[in-house]
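Appendix B, example 12.
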Amino acid sequence: MELFRSLGISASGLTAQRIRMDVIANNIANATTTRDAEGKPYRRKVPVFAETFEETLAGVRPQGVRVAEIRQDPSPFRYVYEPGHPDADENGYVAYPNVNVVREMVDLMGAGRAYEANVTMLNAAKEMFRSALSIGR
């Protein structure tokens, strides 16, 4: 039924935005991590969204969104002169992650707004279902 398909699309959007918020929270938490398991500074991660489709006899229909992968941001690290830091190089510079907390907060606000939009769509669909059921009474 087409009404239930809209719920699935919104649910996939909720899932994708929740993953996006989790990735952003991880970036913020590691904004000052100068050494990971490999001994390098943390690298910012970014989720990549992809549209999902369903093939039918009538053609291809959208099914929602999914997180295709989580990529590392290739932008350069931030170097700060701290000669006493344990991770400082021979010139006294420490490589800090390429995480900009302000940018992450703006991305978090966008993810929150997208999440709210999907919740609003779910609520609107519920009201349409309720109205359709009341017509039969």
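The chain has a mean pLDDT of 91. Residues 1 and 58 are 15 Å apart (CA to CA).
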